[in-house]
Structure formats: C-alpha cells, structure tokens
Design a protein that fits this description.
Elements: H1 4-9, H2 11-20, H3 26-64, H4 70-103, E1 123-127, H5 140-147, H6 152-158, H7 168-187, E2 192-194, E3 199-201, H8 202-207, E4 220-221, E5 226-228, H9 233-237, E6 243-246, E7 252-261, E8 280-290, H10 295-312, E9 317-321, E10 333-341, E11 346-355, H11 359-364, E12 366-369, E13 378-379, E14 381-389, H12 392-400, E15 408-409, E16 423-424
Parallel strand pairs: 2-7, 6-12
Antiparallel strand pairs: 1-9, 3-5, 4-5, 7-8, 8-14, 9-10, 10-11, 11-14, 12-13, 15-16
Helix pairs in contact: 3-4
Amino acid sequence: MLDPKYLRENIGFVTESIIKRNGDTGLIDRFQELDKLRRSLVQETEEFKRQKNDASKKIGELIKKKVDAESAKAEVKALNEKIGVLDEKLRKIEDEYKFVMDSIPNVPHESVPVGKNEKDNPIIKESGEKNVFSFTPRDHITLGQINGMFDLERGAKITGSGFPLYTGPGAKLERALINFMLDIHIKEHGYKEVFPPVLVNRASMRGTGQIPKLEEDMYKISEEDFFLIPTAEVPVTNMHANEVLTEEELPIYYTAYTVCFRREAGSYGKDTKGIIRVHQFNKVEMVKFVKPEESMNELESLLCDAEDILGRLGLTYRVMELCTADISFAAQKCYDIELWAPGSNKWLEVSSCSVFSDFQARRANIKYQPEDKTKKAQYVHTLNGSGVALPRLVVAIMENYQQKDGSIIIPKPLRPYFGAKKILPLK
C-alpha cells in the first residue's frame, strides 16, 4: 500500500506510473474523491464532538448552580445523533477508501524500463549455450513416460487436471531438488530455514498484496476465510506482521519449501499438457527484510542466489528485467529467470526476484526501530524470490540431460541425494 500522504502530494507522478503499468487511473480519481470527503467528514465530526464537550461541561456547571439543564442535555442528545450519522457515513467511506488504497499498485522504481507488454522486457543476461543433440530431443511428457516419473492420469483422477502425481524417480527428483536448494541457501547463502503453514488468513493475503487484486487466482476455504498459499512469500513475509524489529536484527533472510496452489484463472488452454502449468507445485522461496537504503543491492544479491542454483545444475538460463507493463502489482522492481527446455523448444520461467519497497510492509505493518532511539520506527523494505520453482526446473533438467535411449543423466550436484547414482531411471 502506498503512503496516503505520499499519494496526496504526488498524485500526478503516481497517475503517470499507473499509465505506464497499463493500469486503471480511475482508482486515483476515486481516491481523491474519497480522500476529500473522508477528511471533510472527520473535520465535521471533530467539530460536533467539540461542541458536545462544551455542552457537557455546561450541563455540569448548570447542575452545580442548581439551574435547569434540560436544554443543554437536549443539545448534547442532538449532537450525539449528528455524530452517530456522520460516524456511519465515515465507516462506509472508510471501507471503500481502504479497498481503493489496497487496489492502487506500487510505483515502479525509476530504473524499471517502460514498456507496453512482456515483449518489451529486456534480456539483461544469458548464461550457457543451448544443448546440441545428435538426435531429436524428446519433451518431458515422453521422457516422463519412459522413466516412470509421473502419472498425470491418476493425478487427475485423484483431484483433477493440473494436480500432478509424481512417481518413483520423479518423486525422488522433486525431493532431491528441494533438499539441494535448501541446503545451498541455508549453508552458503545465509538464509534461515522456516517451514510455514500453507493455509493463511485474509489479513496475510492482503499483507503481501495478493488480495483484493488477485483473489480470483487463489484457492479459498470459504467457511473459515482461509486461502491455500500461492507462494511461501505470503506466510513468511507475514511472520513479522504488526511487529517492530530492531535495526540490529536487519537484514533478515528466510528460505522455505512449501507446496503452492494457483487456480491460474484466465490461462485455460495454455500449456495444459504435462507439468509446465499446473495448479499445485513445489517451490523453494527466499524472503528478505532489510533497511530501505539497502533494498536495491539486496535485490541484486537475491537474483545471484537464484542464479547460483541454476548455474550449479549446469542449465542454460536467461535473466529478464520486467518492464512497467509486466511488473507485478506489489513489486517496485523485478527480474525473471527463464530456463531453456530443448524438448519443449521454449523458455520456461522458474524464478521471479522482486523488491517491494515499503509497499508490503505498510499493508502488513512491519517496522524497525533505528539504533538512534530519538528516531521514529520506520517501515522495512521486503523482497522475495523463487529459489527456485518446480516443476519447470524438473522439465528443464529432464530435457537437457536426456540421452538417446530416453534415460536421463542426474546432474552432479544432485547425485549425493540419489546414493551416487548417475542415471535415471534408477536400476
């Protein structure tokens, strides 16, 4: 959420940033209307309360003098009724005001490239060369069948399309990758491991900016107003909701493995075969809480941590800087990492690394107290990044490490998790 004072004082700049996002500037118009009305009602209510206090004092004075106070009491009653009417109007306005404020996106950082759509995202780095095969490479669906790695038909029978069932070497590869990524982030990148709930309440989803804008993409348990998490970003960021951290505690780095759930509303018909686009998937996430002046450097470090995983696995990848039209609702700046999948003949996104300025911290009320106690508590800056997401990582490994007979070489860093085996399927 943007600071209302900042928004009030920079209305033109924020409007321009929304236009660059291809967003709805009508929200700004409505904010101005509600903000003006809200402040007018507050001022009017405060004036009536002042009059009420004066009238109440007058009642006491009249009673002391043993003078009839009925007219003063009637005045207080009338003022109470007026205050009640205004309070009810203000409550309704506050509800819409809060919704509008929650619906206005973050202002992109000045370094974010301006663009009209995802085609305008510049590629800022490419690592590795595309594999050249002496045979026609198979896609992950065929390779999965050859090696008995997943059973999509039974997964669909259990739940529905988009809920994959991993079997045998496929299940083991998922587990090995999760452990490998956690081990690297914890032992070498300096993150603390947490294992959060995968059900969160509405306040948590609002805190990180998933709702109200993205509510239709989430799986919801209506009876308790709980949501299945779309990413570990939600529970991990909200670990410190409504808290004041100390400056000495910052920066805080967390990493977490969770299963994630997304309805993928509006994406029906896209990549419906195989495991490239699914409703349930595993992911290792990285989350940071940092001081404002350090957040941009921390974003570059976060990106390096995600890249390190892919580099160790020997995969070809590229990094894209998202333009203003493609950046997420809450992000101030974002990088995407894509892996090359030769069998599918496409680039697959496996990580988004984002900095949010104080946008999430305002929504979740996460502050820190500077060492100088004469200074007020400030909002932290939050960051998160996939470190990285499965199953597209699995797809890239299967398709890049396949052999002519359909077997799959296990990347060297993963072999310790397979008892030093080198080839899938395991025999």
